[in-house]
Amino acid sequence: MTTTATPRITAAQVAGVTLGNALEFYDFLIFTFFAVEIGRAFFPATNPQSSLLAALATFGAGFLTRPLGGFVLGIFGDRVGRRPAMLVSFALIGIASLGVALTPSYATIGIAAPALVIFWRLLQGFALGGEVGPSTAFLAEAAPPHLRGLYVSMQMFGQNVAVLIAGLIGWALAQMLDDVTLAAWGWRIALALGVGVVPIGLVLRRTLPESLPAEAAAIAPPPLSSYRRTAVIAFLALLSGTIMTYVTNFLTTFAKTTLHLPSGIAFWGTIAVGVGGTIGAPLGGWLADRYGRRPAMILPTLLVCLITLPAFWLITVAPGKASLFVVGCGLRLAIGIALSAVLVHITEDFPPRVRSGALSIVYALAISIFGGSTQFVVAWLTGVTGSPLAPAWYMAAAAVVGLVAVFFARETAPRYKR
């Protein structure tokens, strides 16, 4: 059987994949950063908490279809190619994001408004569910072995760049518009900006080489038993990382609703999270290449276990820009390091023949169950217990689960693999 050489991609092409990831996650995540405003537009209620919970539940609806997208587009990426799967997912999320931005409010079209928003969120979830597996598999397969961690970390880097850009745009809009205008239509600008650059991402992705060998589709998939252990560890590590990620993504809403800070200050939480993750993601990839996957997974996860409760205590007793920035940046820095190492480990540990599909499905399942519910759960827990530390307890528990999972992971770095 002939084999196809692994393509070597240029820095510009790596940037194209990373930009695509950033744009897709920006379009998906911007919803949560404007959850308060979107709740007022589509889910009016006499109780602000009920309106917020309805908006967060709709945000969570986008996670319901992520496993379906992971299954369909992930397997598509294993059979047809990584590049076609990335193009399809990118186009779909652009259409769905435009739909959310253009949907009239409840006051204009009544019950059709929340129904349409839920539909667009489901389509967004399907698209994003099929993005992670093919794009991560592509980065791993096209990377030089000694730089695989750094290349794969560009997946997490793109996601965190999306958070940072969302925070900066949210902060800028909050400076230019008052809270009433921001709630009325200002949040739509943030969505429209993400949609506007979708054509650029499509052009960049069309230039990518294909990393899936031409004969790969003819190879029989390996039995599930050969990678069941990898799937279990991946699921537990990803559910942990998902909860930690979405609790920190919740900082802006937490600052608005629990700490009662104005939007201009609250968005510093999102900016801080974006800065920390943007630094942590490539740092995690570099550390995973330099010292191995296991140390880069275990040590930062242990740090999150230790500092989460003190960090949230700090922002409750001293709420403001400084505390939000220190806490958001510090927590997300550690999370970014750990998740980059986790992602490269599980990508390497899955057999190439099922890599795109298996990674997509496991990732999407963990994200759909825990990413879609995390912000709703912490908002509900905060309301029920009356404790501003409720998100911290939930996040710390998730970090413990992740620590146990990565402790049992085997080393997959080429230079340290036994």
Give a written overview of the molecule.
The protein contains 18 helices and no strands. The longest helix has about 30 residues. The chain is globular and about 60 Å long. The protein has one domain: MFS general substrate transporter like domains (Growth Hormone, Chain: A), CATH 1.20.1250. It is mainly α and about 425 residues long. The mean pLDDT is about 85. Helix 14 packs parallel to helix 16.
What are its keywords?
Growth Hormone, Chain: A, 418 residues, 18 helices, mainly alpha
CATH superfamily: MFS general substrate transporter like domains
Q: Gap between N and C termini, in Å?
A: 29 Å
> What value does the Rg take, in angstroms?
20 Å
Helix content: over 70%
* Average residue pLDDT: 83
The assigned structural class equals mainly alpha
In CATH, what is the class?
Answer: Mainly Alpha
Low-confidence blocks of residues: none
Estimate nothing, just give the exact number of structural domains: 1
Strand content: under 5%
Number of helices: 18
Anisotropy-based shape: globular
CATH architecture: Up-down Bundle
Number of strands: 0
Topology:
Elements lengths: L10 H23 L1 H8 L5 H17 L1 H14 L2 H21 L3 H4 L2 H18 L2 H11 L5 H29 L2 H18 L1 H9 L21 H22 L1 H7 L5 H29 L1 H25 L3 H29 L5 H31 L4 H18 L11
Question: Would you kindly provide a brief summary of this structure?
Answer:
With 418 residues, this protein is mostly helical.
